[in-house]
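Marked as duplicate of an earlier ticket. Keeping the data here for the record.
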Amino acid sequence: MEILLIIVLVIILLVCGMAIFYASIYNKFQDYIIRINEVESIIDNGLRKKYDLINRAIPIIKTIIPKDREVFGEIVKLRSRKLSNFELYRVLERSSIEINSLKEEFPKIEESEEIKKIQTSVIDIDNTIQEATLYYNDNISIYNKLLKKFPSNIVASLSKYKEKLFFDRKDMSDEDYNDFKL
């Protein structure tokens, strides 16, 4: 009878220990998932603000350059599409480059006070996005390591967590990304 009681206690202790172990690792994953979601929101808001600012700059720039000049075709097409933050980042970067090249070609653009204000705001947003991206990638790195390392990989597979991509500003259609499918 005593042996049976000892066996039952050992089993109860093992089950409780495993439950505590599972809960602690599960909570660690949840902590990183929350951090990642929060910083994704910051990046998303920054990109949306930058998109709005560039959209505000377009009509101003179009009044300065010749009417027959086709500009900002890519950004205008975005109004009807839903993009990931990765894609939106790349389109906005190309649009910023286009604005800078137009400023060199048409110095009057640089004289516009509204364009100066927009550019200052875009620079501030770019700095915020840069900082958020670093924080995002740091948390993605830790999260992805947890997915791979024992014993947290057991909890990850039971919870069906998947590896996440870094926000590295590369084109998702690049061959490197086509080879890296999750």
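See parent ticket for discussion. Helices lie at 2-64, 73-77, 85-105, 108-111, 113-148, 152-159, 175-179.
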